[in-house]
Design brief:
It contains 15 helices and 14 strands. By secondary structure, the protein is of the alpha/beta class. Helix 7 links the parallel strand 7 (192-196) and strand 8 (220-225). Bound molecules: zinc ion.
Length: 388
């Protein structure tokens, strides 16, 4: 994760949306087309576009009241107990139209591009009912086709227990497994299935039931694991062959070993620990054990209202003891790996999709070091220079 493959005085040639050549400017010898657009990156750094592999960027309403309550000492669980939390966003999303959901997410995607994120995973999970979950996923599919940004849709029907099923967890799991998942798979509405595996949400047994059903239907797997309690979510992700296990603030030693052995990407979310002021995931232990670590924003209205990947890198370096090189790898190629896209995204290599940013910094380390500032000057997606 510390090897960045830096090219000084470099040049990149893009053709038909892909990287065609990378190397030192003086070493390029091939012919160039006359109608080529040339971007001068003198004094700047060219980087792969960020891949934000874990977001909840489709929601309605906002929760600044909870932010204020937390500033006075309320915990995430206190707030959920007072009718706040995930379910308050669920009631807002259920009232919103597909058009409204698309409109707000589209604005976030544009703003994310301006901050250098060229691919974002987005989860459903604020509908928690057949109709609204499907509306969210249809809206995400339309955005994937219409937006400049890359969008990877994830089904997170198992985000929380909806009020209609209070006291009836088995009933809701049955709805997910028997009705929602088969419909989503048949309509090809999601690439991944994710489960919020946590005490008071979905236990290990329920998570396994839902994820196994999704796997049989051809969906790839992600798990919200070991965030608030060390309950074996990481081990479950490893056992089921999940692509990533995310959060991991409370992962056990056995969980670290299981991820390393199974080659599961650890999706760490520095912005959540920062926003909620709770412990950070043991990034150092995971990296030293050979687990591929990705960092993502977890952009959502409750526990991290930021989608700035450079800010996530800063927090990773200052609070989780990751090096700037590791943070950059985690925000690009390992983010792509967390989405099963590392063969095509996340680095500037011939044959890969030409998703790049030009940052007005003298050195790549400035991205994390000089924080709270947007250094991105140009964004190239699929080989096209975007007007943002
Ligand atoms: Zn999340």
């Amino acid at each position: 994760m510390r090897e960045l493959g830096i090219v000084t005085d470099g040049a990149v040639l893009c053709r038909e949306g892909r990287v065609a050549w990378v190397g030192k400017t003086g070493e390029f010898t091939g012919p160039l087309p006359d109608d080529m657009t040339v971007l001068d990156g003198t004094g700047m750094v060219v980087l792969p576009g960020f891949v934000d592999s874990h977001t909840h960027a489709m929601f309605a309403g906002s929760r600044e009241r909870e932010f204020a309550l937390r500033s006075e000492g309320a915990t995430y669980q206190d707030i959920a107990g007072q009718g706040g939390g995930i379910l308050s966003t669920v009631s807002q999303v259920r009232k919103a139209s597909k058009r409204e959901l698309k409109h707000s997410t589209s604005r976030y995607l544009t703003e994310m591009l301006r901050h250098g994120t060229t691919t974002a995973e987005i989860k459903s999970g604020y509908g928690l009912a057949m109709e609204t979950e499907v509306t969210m996923l249809e809206a995400l599919r339309e955005l994937r086709d219409e937006e400049l940004s890359g969008v990877v849709p994830t089904f997170l029907g198992a985000h929380a227990l909806p009020p209609e099923f209070a006291g009836n967890l088995p009933g809701y799991v049955a709805l997910l497994v028997e009705r929602l998942l088969p419909y989503i798979a048949r309509k090809n509405l999601a690439v991944f299935c994710d489960v919020f595996c946590e005490q008071g949400y979905f236990g290990l047994e329920e998570a396994e039931t839902i994820l196994s059903a999704a796997k049989v239907l051809g969906l790839k797997l992600k798990v919200h694991a070991d965030e608030l309690t060390s309950m074996g979510g990481a081990e479950l992700a490893a056992r089921l062959g999940a692509v990533s296990a995310d959060h991991l603030e409370k992962i056990s030693g056995r969980g670290v070993e299981a991820l390393a052995e199974a080659g599961v990407v650890a999706g760490l979310l520095p912005g959540v620990s920062f926003s909620l002021n709770h412990g950070y995931a043991p990034a150092r232990r995971l990296i030293d054990a050979g687990v591929p670590v990705a960092i993502a924003s977890d952009f959502n209205p409750g526990s991290c209202m930021s989608f700035s990947m450079p800010l996530m890198m800063t927090i990773a370096c200052t609070q989780m003891r990751m090096t700037p090189e590791e943070a950059l790898t985690a925000a690009t190629i390992n983010g792509a790996a967390a989405l099963g896209l590392s063969a095509t995204h996340g680095s500037i290599e011939p044959g890969k999709q030409a998703d790049m940013i030009l940052a007005s910094v003298p050195d790549y380390r400035f991205l994390a070091y000089h924080f709270g500032v947007n250094h991105v000057r140009s964004v190239i997606k699929n080989g096209t220079l975007l007007e943002l």
